[in-house]
Design goal:
With 391 residues, this protein is an all-alpha fold. The protein contains 15 helices and no strands. It has 2 domains: 189 residues; 194 residues. Helices cover 75% and strands 0% of the residues.
Length: 391
């Protein structure tokens, strides 16, 4: 192996390479597919299925991010690998709407091809380097999880959900025990010598992908409803809500967290908790909020299903803020009180679905998120030293 294939020796540093941005285009499509899937299946079963599929989509993207954190994406071998992963990713994303129907094998096969194919190639590319053992352990667990993924595609109904849930549990618990493997041992977080700045920027870009999808959804829905007064008002509220979510995440926390992980003595630990796992509820919250925006723009004054509209409109921002509170806890060591209060208020707003129109509920949820953003800005301006009011 040439030394240049390692990111640390390539001269690339923490910079995100153009091929990584190109790779992310697949996930713009995947996020759109997930939001439409949820919109079309507003039921407990539909929510559970969408959540399961989102876990798979996130994991496929995240493991590729870890790969390009270790190895240089500008190396020709890894560029070709990413191109192959993109192709399989497009198939996986296209199969999302029918994953629990006739497209199960296509979805599961594409997902397993992504995880196994990329990990096999990377393990071979990393030969002779310490990181090879890390990927070898990952490969073993990917092989184990591939069994219920593929088996689930050949059964129907609840059995498929059970098998795919088992596959997700296998994959999501593996990092916590260090990919413990017979004869190969386990990895410590100190073995995951990641570039903290690169990891932070990659996750920030996925947040942008999710927010971008929400903007696209609101614009397309407004067009479908011919720019009526109610739809226009709901569109403005939805846009302001997206800006508020962006503001909460990027105003100070994103940069401060990137600096924290870059300076950490154990960036692998922060990379696992704060970015690999905790970013998931934030992204999920943005997707759920986008579904709520589409429902409100379509029916600003009257509910199709008032309960599910309220859950999407209020639950999305609540999920995002809860995830952001956990993110701050993981990186900075505290849970900000304003996010806890905001989540409580958003949850309390849901029962109001029986009494107020969806546009009013959406406006209230948007104002709650803006209150958090303004609270943060005021505290920063005052220069508070209270750790609870830190970045």
């Amino acid at each position: 192996m040439t030394a240049e294939i390692l990111r640390s020796r390539s001269g690339l540093g923490g910079r995100v390479a153009p091929i990584e941005l190109f790779f992310d285009l697949v996930y713009v499509f995947a996020v759109t597919q997930l939001s439409h899937l949820l919109l079309d299946h507003l039921s407990p079963a539909g929510v559970a299925q969408t959540a399961l599929l989102m876990l798979a989509v996130w994991w496929a993207w995240m493991y590729t991010t870890w790969t390009t954190n270790y190895l240089s994406p500008e190396h020709p071998a890894l560029r070709l690998t990413l191109a192959g992963v993109m192709l399989a990713g497009l198939v996986m994303a296209a199969a999302l709407p029918s994953a629990f129907d006739g497209g199960a094998l296509l979805f599961a096969g594409a997902y397993v091809a992504i995880q196994l194919g990329r990990t096999i190639v990377v393990t071979l590319l990393a030969r002779g380097e310490a990181v090879q053992l890390v990927f070898a352990r990952v490969l073993v667990w990917m092989v184990v999880s591939a069994v219920p993924w593929i088996a689930g595609a050949f059964v129907e109904g609840a059995a498929r959900g059970v098998l795919w849930t088992l596959a997700v549990l296998i994959e999501y618990t593996a990092p916590w025990h260090g990919y413990l493997t017979p004869r190969l041992g386990r990895s410590a977080t100190s073995d995951w010598t990641i570039d903290g700045g690169h990891m932070a920027e990659r996750c920030q870009l996925f947040v942008i992908i999710a927010l971008g999808e929400s903007v696209l959804v609101t614009g397309a829905t407004l067009q479908e409803h011919h720019f009526g007064a109610g739809a226009m008002a709901a569109f403005v509220v939805a846009f302001l809500g997206s800006v508020a979510l962006w503001w909460v995440y990027f105003d100070r926390t994103a940069e401060a967290a990137a600096q924290a992980i870059a300076a950490s003595d154990d960036p692998g630990r922060l990379g696992r908790s704060a970015y690999t796992f905790i970013h998931l509820p934030m992204v999920a919250g943005i997707i759920v909020a986008a579904v709520g925006d589409e429902l409100v723009i379509a029916h600003p004054g009257a509910y199709g299903d008032r309960w599910w509209t309220a859950v999407m409109v209020c639950g999305g921002p609540a999920l995002f803020l809860a995830g952001h509170a956990l993110f701050k806890r993981a990186v900075f060591g505290y849970v900000p009180i304003n996010r806890v209060l905001a989540v409580a208020v958003l949850v309390a707003l849901i029962p109001l679905a029986k009494a107020v129109p969806p546009l009013a509920l959406a406006a209230a949820a948007m104002l709650v998120v803006w209150a958090v953003a303004i609270w943060d800005a005021v505290l920063v301006r005052r220069g508070s030293r209270n750790p609870e009011l830190a970045p």
